[in-house]
Design a protein that fits this description.
The chain contains 21 helices and 20 strands. With 553 residues, it is an alpha/beta fold.
Length: 553
């Protein structure tokens, strides 16, 4: 017999979250979320109180990246909801599963001029796969089930549910609906055959692997495909770690705004195989300079038709299965080394090994900071990059030891993710340490979450690259253009105010020992290091021109 016990709309929504396996909600409560907070407190779901809704959304985004299940963030109406938008859009453009829940005024106030009332369904629609106002408590299970389905299907993304306070309080006898797991689809045999035939004709193919490989758990399949065929692999920023830096088939990362070593390989390629590649990670037209270069696609979801690429063949389905099938169809065919590919790989390795900092004290070149970080990394650690000039250097020079170890927000590329995201990442760390790498502009976007980290006892290290300005913007302005210097807090005072330990690097000589000590500390640690972008040519790629010319000669 069906249980006819009534529950509030808020309780029904929380029941739906629990039935879907959600164990954590990040957020900031408000008056209109009172019933929802009461339902959460009576459940097994942990509520993480954040200091700003943007921080909560970034935490949920990192939770989704690391778990593969939707991260959930909560805000009240009006300014609470508008603060949430940036982190929700980050998840949407980076294809991260996320559920955003906002409180709202009662239904009688919808579409009226009223205190703090804006159309939240419309506000979130452009930055989500699904945005809906829950108008009846009995409709909550169906709306939640559809939101959950969309969040985890195809290319994952963000969804939004708006809960008016009178719907949250209203009684009903609704129950959660089963969550529909996305079907496990395999690519068509004709498509796999055609792609294998196209690949077999190429003499200088290159694989460009994207974040979809990590999401689909297909990194091992890509590695085996590369080793068996001899075809080299470049990755996007978000897919680094699929191949280690010392692997014979690695071509490192694509995505820099300046010409880089990888461009030598792409210019020489006569076929590009995109595997799990998201167009938002890097402009697809930047992958090929010639219209006669065939582009083939292996992915779980069809690529958009408006990328500008002319796709010869696409195999849509499980990435690992597709690569295995294509490899078998190639019947042992292998590809010999290509001089341009070797030059690109060797040139990048030379760039990674080259020390640019002069002296043991004073500002440190970004390449040398990244080398110290790479040497300190253990397999179980997690690294997050903020957004700014430092992100470009981290994406190029920090070499992760496994897929997913390095989180680089690159779709929306909004400043402020790394610090709050470190808290979410720390919740997954049984043994390793979390390192968030921020610019001095980036960290101040969500500095208030240092209190959240202290309160929850998270073991994180935040490294701040200090240059006193918006380095990336200044570089684009060029000489003679307007520059944007700013002041910084007294870092030791800032750390102390939040109960953190502060460690100041005076230069390159003491950075390795200082970073190792910070990564081993029990409490949260703030590490500051002065950075000299000019020592490395400001933008990644600019300092390689001399090396590239020498290599060509």
């Amino acid at each position: 017999m069906r249980d006819t016990t009534t529950k509030s709309g808020a309780q029904v929504l929380v029941d739906c979250l629990q039935a879907a396996g959600i164990d954590t909600v990040f957020g900031v409560p408000g008056e209109e979320t009172t019933a929802l907070m009461e339902a959460l407190s009576a459940s097994d779901i942990e509520f993480v109180l954040c200091r700003n809704e943007q921080g909560a959304a970034f935490m949920a985004s990192v939770h989704g990246r690391l778990s593969g299940q939707p991260g959930v963030c909560l805000a009240t109406l009006g300014p609470g909801a508008t603060n949430l938008v940036t982190g929700v859009a980050d998840a949407q453009l980076d294809h991260v599963p996320l559920i955003a829940i906002t409180g709202q005024g009662g239904r009688g106030r919808l579409s009226r001029m009223s205190h703090q009332m804006i159309d939240l369904e419309a506000l979130f629609a452009p930055v989500t796969k699904f945005s809906r106002t829950l108008l009846l408590p009995g409709d909550i299970p169906a709306s939640f089930a559809e939101a959950m389905r969309l969040a985890i299907s195809g290319r994952p993304g963000a969804v939004h549910l708006c809960l008016p306070e009178d719907v949250a309080a209203a009684e009903c006898d609704a129950h959660p609906l089963p969550v529909r797991t996305p079907p496990h689809i395999r690519a068509g045999q004709d498509d796999l055959h055609a792609l294998a035939d196209q690949l077999a004709l190429a003499k200088r193919p290159v694989i460009v692997a994207g974040a979809g490989v990590v999401r689909d758990g297909a990194a091992e399949a890509v590695r085996m495909f590369a080793e068996t065929t001899g075809i080299p692999v470049a990755t996007t920023f978000m897919a680094k770690g699929i191949l280690p830096a010392d692997h014979d088939q690695t071509l490192f990362a694509v995505g820099q705004s300046e010409d880089d070593w990888i461009d030598l390989a792409l210019q020489a390629a006569d076929l590009i195989l995109l595997v799990g590649f998201d167009a938002v990670e890097y402009g697809p037209l930047g992958l090929t300079q010639r219209n006669d270069v065939p582009v083939c696609v292996v992915d779980t979801d069809p690529p958009r038709a408006d990328t500008g690429l002319v796709i010869a063949v696409e195999a849509i389905g499980d990435i690992g299965h597709s690569l295995t099938d294509i490899r078998l169809r190639l019947k042992g065919q292998t590809w010999a080394a290509v001089p341009a590919f070797d030059a690109a790989r060797d040139g990048m390795r030379l760039a990674l090994d080259r020390q640019l900092t002069q002296g043991g004290t004073g500002p440190v070149a970004p390449t040398d900071i990244c080398r110290v970080v790479t040497k300190s990394l253990r397999m179980e650690d997690t690294v997050l990059s903020g957004v700014g000039m430092h992100k470009l250097w981290i994406a190029r020079h920090v070499q992760p030891k496994r897929p997913g170890q390095l989180i680089v927000p690159n779709g929306l590329a909004g400043m402020g993710l790394a610090l709050p995201g470190a808290l979410a990442a720390a919740r997954f760390q049984d043994k390793g340490r979390v390192l968030a790498m921020c610019g001095d502009g980036d960290i101040m976007m969500n500095v208030q979450e240092m209190e959240t980290i202290t309160r929850l006892g998270a073991r994180v290290t935040v490294m701040v690259w200090v240059d006193g300005g918006l380095g990336l913007i200044d570089a684009h302005q060029g000489e003679g253009g307007p520059q944007f210097p700013f002041g910084n807090p007294i870092w030791d005072h800032l750390a102390s105010a939040f109960g953190w330990t502060h460690a100041e690097a005076r230069g390159l000589s003491d950075l390795p020992e200082l970073l190792d000590a910070a990564l081993g500390a029990e409490g949260p640690t703030l590490v500051t290091v002065p950075v000299d972008y000019a020592a490395a040519g400001h933008m990644p790629g600019e300092a390689t021109h001399e090396l590239r010319n020498n290599s060509a000669a």
